[in-house]
Amino acid sequence: MNFTALLNAMPGAVAQGLIWGIMAIGVYITYKVLDLADLTVDGSMATGGAVCVMLMLNGVNVWVALLCAVIAGMLAGLLTGVFHTAMGIPPILAGILTQLSLYSINLAIMEFKANQGINVTKYQLIVSQRNVRSAGLSNPIYTALIVLALLIAVLYWFFGTELGSSLRATGANEAMSRAQGINTNLAKILGLMISNGIVALSSAMLSHYQGFVDVNMGRGAIVIGLAAVIISDVLFGKLFRNFALKLIGVAIGAVIYYIVIQIVLWLGLNTNLLKLLSALVVAVFLGIPYWKAKVSAGYKGKGGQEHA
Amino acid sequence: MLDLVNVKKTFNAKTVNEKIALNDLNLHLNDQDFVTVIGGNGAGKSTMLNAIAGVWPIDQGSIVIDGTDISRLPEHKRAPLLGRVFQDPMTGTAATMQIEENLALAARRGEKRTLKPGITRAERSQYRDQLATLGLGLEDRMTTKVGLLSGGQRQALTLLMATLKKPRLLLLDEHTAALDPRTAEKVLQLSEKIVTENKLMTLMVTHNMRDAIRYGNRLIMMNDGKIILDIADEEKKRLTVEELMEAFFKASGEEFANDRALLS
After folding, report:
1. Looking at the 3D structure of chain A, how many domains does it have?
2. Contact A203, A45 (CB under 8 A)
3. Beta-bridge partners for B227
4. Which position among A154, B44, B79, B252 has the lowest Cβ density within 10 Å, counted as fewest Cβ atoms?
5. CA distance B2 to A301
6. Does residue B144 form part of some domain?
7. What percent of chain B is modeled with pLDDT above 90?
8. ipTM of the complex model
9. CB-based contact (8 Å) between A182 and chain B?
């Protein structure tokens, strides 16, 4: 095995990991803060790129295109939120419905083609795979780090505000939140919109990075997002208490995920089996807290309720 | 003032499990009434409190506070008028949030949540003083996650949260039932102190007849979704547990089938 090949692949893994880290932060907001598993992201992870690339191909300024991508993602979150709160559909199913509808919508945005390319020499792309080994500021790793820093700063501020606190409260205890006058339906919709807006931003950046948008690029995104959240929980759960640190941990988790994937591929795993591997790894790590709880409940014996 | 007028609520209507939980319930509370509510299992005590709080819509009738009909408002819109403490200590607080964050949420009950800071320095020192009045040492643990507190501490905190912003009506739903007797006693005394100091109109559900007699200025007994006994002031002060049991038997034609009430 050629170790240099692995080393050469590392900058790409880090860049991809950081871009997916943005996406994973979106997943963190629904999964950890709001306590909702939102499968919309598998769709919105393609929507952002589709909107951004198509607008740019039609001559729209890159920053305007990015903003539109974020707004499109937020609309996807709004749809899931309405399915869930106004129509009483369980959140997982609501997300699946939006995800499915987004498949058609994404194709429509991409003029009914499965993918659309965008050339880095003709268009102003904010990140590109081509520069991943350059030492200069054009390296996508720097750009991704700046976007992550800004995003984490904004989220840290927001979740400290009255409105942000009401979102956290809704995720922590809905009955209590309503008793304190919080409109929990609105809080959930807002959280889903913020989350999917972030996912769409990541999607747009990913399409810049790889130079094309593909209607299937979001498939399994939720699993990658969860993997990043879980890796961060396992590695930094005890260390990172502060909200900003936790978000940083999630981004690092995504980078670790991509480095591990890179190593596994280097070891000779068939690329087509990657998703199976990811799903199994995530399933095991989701199971660990459950097993842990079972074991500790066993030690305490029956009726081992804690009352001080 | 609180008025419940012909309030009706049926659960699982038109099924074999149909249960008429509130059956043409009528109740009038004056300002500063501190009413204890007793009754057997399934009498409708908690259902009455949940109907007032708006946990689900009622089928018929109206719930009026100070002349405003709130019976069609969603739960979160009634919250400005109501302070609530629940039976389960887990229900009233957000376990994964800090003590001071929980208080800050409660301090904004009924206000629009904006992009202003969720908690300010001035608030923190105010909360510290108010936590100190509980006498539980919580004022030195302001940034502790509420999930680490004991049941009694959480109920005391919930009580403070319910009254931080003075409510028009305080709803205490068997809020000491899950606590050990000594802690329950403490929380009850604290409840009385807060109610008296703030002159709060209060409904307190309890399963303990002695507590029902000891606290408040008025006692109501419920059975089958109705009020079957309503005793106030001097007459209430002279009540005994035996008389209450007898009254229950007479009014309902059943034994007071509640072990907890008999044993405590």
Report:
1. 1
2. yes
3. B222
4. A154
5. 47
6. no
7. 84
8. 0.91
9. yes
